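Mods, move this if it's the wrong board.
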Amino acid sequence: MKKLTPILTLFHTANFWADANSTGKEIDFIKEGSLFQLLPEPSLAQRMESLGGYVVQTGHFTRLLLPFDFGITPPAQAVDKLPAQLLFYITAPDAAPVKASGLNLNNQLLFVKPTAPAADYTYNKRTISCKPCGAAAVLAAGDLVPYIPADVSLSGIHSLIQKPLGTATQPLDLKVTIDATVIPVVKDEDLKAVHKALHEVRFKTAAISFNRASDNSALKSFAKMLVTPGLLPAGTIGLVSIPTAGLTVNDTNPLKYADLNNYIIHFPSFQATISLTVNTRQFDGAAKLQLDGVDVPGVVAIDHPQMPNYKKVTGTVNNYKIYLNKLDQVTIVTGAKKNHMPVNPLNTYNPATNTANITITK
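Not the wrong board. Structure tokens:
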């Protein structure tokens, strides 16, 4: 008798949602709403459907179920008909969660596989063991890679290398090297050969370089570049590749499958420097400046050089933890009076300096 059985559950969690869950170990700490979505690549979804399986998606996970026949051994005959790699897009309907992770996408995508040792998480008040996807248990900058569509256009190549594709005498003078495949591109139709070579390494990483065809001078090279299909789901920030061969599908006890083959995408959090400048008439010698109810150290207040009767109040907070649900607010305390001003450090955060420069005029 066949029974629909989970063969894989891919969870996501984050350290940056709330300080009460700063390790991200409680997957469903936030009961409603979804920070991210994990979408099966369309051909995988179609294959699941053709095999009589289902894809279940919630705000916390995506699960694949296939019909298992527990009257035979092994029970999971249908798994043999799945692709060698199970692919999922990581999408973010809102960009704010990505910023709060501290991961600077900058024309890159996450590309992760299960490599780290299994770790314990809590879901639905139960402890479950999950295999993290990424180089380590928590995602980091090293999991980001530049990417190129398999159907890249000439203008797309120009955007990648930021240099002319031709010379003063030759409109196209380009050579594309994809791993060991070298393709001269000196006329428009040569791009078809580039597309063919890229399509062969789609959903994988390749070493890709761009040179002049005439003299082999270097234009730009990428040691590792993810090759994607031409059209990505809206809000795509990454891709997960899970080898089918790594799944445990030979257990003859159907009850055990709820605890087998759990994977997780674990987003980090980060700390930033907050540089505050408050232009105000409300600051006197006894006043205090606070960030989230904590006194800002080393505050300096001077007469404002451009605004008569105003004070320019400055202060810096180091190692400020960014949380999405934190009530970020600057407060001027004068005696018993507190004047609160909401702020959002992510709006002015500069990854290059790891600093959010916040200026308020009140």
